[in-house]
Design a protein that fits this description.
D-Maltodextrin-Binding Protein, domain 2, 15 helices, 10 strands, globular
Length: 320
Amino acid sequence: MNRRDLLKIIGAGALTAALPARAQSKEPLRFGIQTTIWGAVAIIAEAEKLFDKAGAKVDVVKFGSGAQARDAMIAGHIDIVSIGSPPFLLGVEKAGLVAIGISCYAGGTLSLVASKKSGIKSVADLKGKKIASQLATATDNGFQNKIMPAFGIKKDEYEVVNSKFAEHVSAMASGAVDAFAGVEPFPSIAETEGLGTILTDYSKYDIVPVILATNHKVLASREADLVKFMRGWIMAADIFRKDPKKAASIVGNFFRGRGQKINDDVYRLAMSRMDVSTSYRPELKKYMTDLAQVLVKQKRLGEMPNIDRALDQRILKKIP
């Protein structure tokens, strides 16, 4: 091998090594979150600039539901997404989504809420009633496929009104629906405003894992950035757990900035119902397998996904 050939090889190797580093250092990770209480940790991370402190460049993009965020992920508009399990599994099939950790276990943050004017006292009383629910979400899945069957109520024995989470309280207050299947902070808002009664939360019926997901391309090409992202996320989760007053103030300010004039006590109550943990619980694999089987039976999934592959552990293993 002559000197010229050697220099070509060295030069090509240096260029190959430099390109990923340049891409990782300059391009921000676009992170899609839901503007519900499920987005609390991300809201804290953004407000406190914790992704920056962890060395990660992150643009936080807000969506009204996990399904909307998933669709943005499928379209290539975002790189990471925080979504419920049903939209995650659909994204696994449609766009090769892969979990890098858990946002939270949110069973306590989802509730069936009945109007105080309706006379409804229990879930059993929902038979024959109009119930607001945002379709194609983890909230709706738990409501229709777990809680209602647990009370012996079939799908043709109540009417579902498809509406966005943020519209549930007003729909119930106006009498358009008798109840709603909602996510925090909306059940707490209905409760503290004297408009509704929480019939049950989901924790007894559904652990409701909220997934931090990317796709295989981003995982392969930007692993170092994802590790930094996760470190920033964990710093925000620590504030959520260890300083609930500060966390509620940050989240309250965010929602007040979006027109919801609710005091911090409501957000503290709502956030107390969420288990913030980044790790995979031992029962998670079975939960995801059972859910995938339901989605296949409903013909929403074409085939069973590889759950072990979908619940990737390489990023979590790099976090001390």
